[in-house]
């Protein structure tokens, strides 16, 4: 003890005596130090193994998602209902894009050929102004395939946002939003659309007005569907894990929940698309949509219905075109619903 030197922190230990007490020598201490270092390094491969396992799990999840997508595509291609609807819709999309290049001018008038019956020169006959009914029926797809899909996209976006917020937060937020939705659902769509279009027709271009009006009126229905899907997902393990990681609510809704509720949203979107086609045509039929000389189907039926008794082809062919598109969209909806339910 007398050989120990004093330091500000107490007596400096005698390492030689300590070694002797432990029965070790300096080489043994060095060996133990190396062994301890090796033990600490041995823990790193365990962390690396865990990281590798996580990567493998992510890769397996991605592979499973790709497998499911391939299965859905194959199942849809094998569905007669879906394929028939898809072929009809693609036909009308093609005609909307290229009919002006393969048919007569839908706006060209010929007073000497008014109300002519179907013939080799006019496959669907002519209307009261001598315009080719076939050309107008094909060109009429252009207006409805602009308005209806864009209105549906607006409704899907707004409905998804409202449904996500309502279903995720629940409580008072959910109650307020749902009561407002109930009020909007109580309003007749056609009458409300007429009011909106009449009030804003001089301020907003007609295409934009119809898209926004139909999109806004379909938002409440879609939001209820999204809300129901979110309520079924919000208590699942992956959502709880995201919350425990401290993720923000917007991130959890957009990146965790939304990708897992795409199937009901897709089905609801196709349903609303069919209704949007019919609603746009109805507004034009009532005089609150597109105006002459547009070949819009609803407008054509409205202007030519007075000739139904003497020239039924002027109404029947545009009506059949409208009906075929609505039925085709419904067939696609039915096919999607059957595949997604498996």
What's the short version?
The chain has helices at 15-22, 26-77, 80-102, 133-169, 171-185, 189-200, 206-233, 237-244, 249-257, 262-285, 297-304, 313-341, and strands spanning 6-7, 10-11. It has 342 residues and is mainly alpha-helical.
Q: Mind sketching the topology for me?
A:
Layout: E1 6-7, E2 10-11, H1 15-22, H2 26-77, H3 80-102, H4 133-169, H5 171-185, H6 189-200, H7 206-233, H8 237-244, H9 249-257, H10 262-285, H11 297-304, H12 313-341
Antiparallel strand pairs: 1-2
Helix pairs in contact: 3-4, 3-12, 4-5, 4-7, 4-10, 4-12, 5-7, 6-7, 7-10, 8-9, 10-11, 10-12, 11-12
Describe the structure in your own words.
By secondary structure, the protein is an all-alpha fold. The protein folds into two domains: 14-78; 83-341, MetI-like fold. Helix content is 74%, strand content 1%. It is built from twelve helices and two strands. It has a two-stranded antiparallel ribbon. Strand 1 and strand 2 form a beta hairpin. Helix 7 (206-233) runs antiparallel to helix 10 (262-285). The N and C termini lie far apart (84 Å). The relative contact order is 0.12. Residues 7-33 and 35-47 have low confidence and may be disordered.
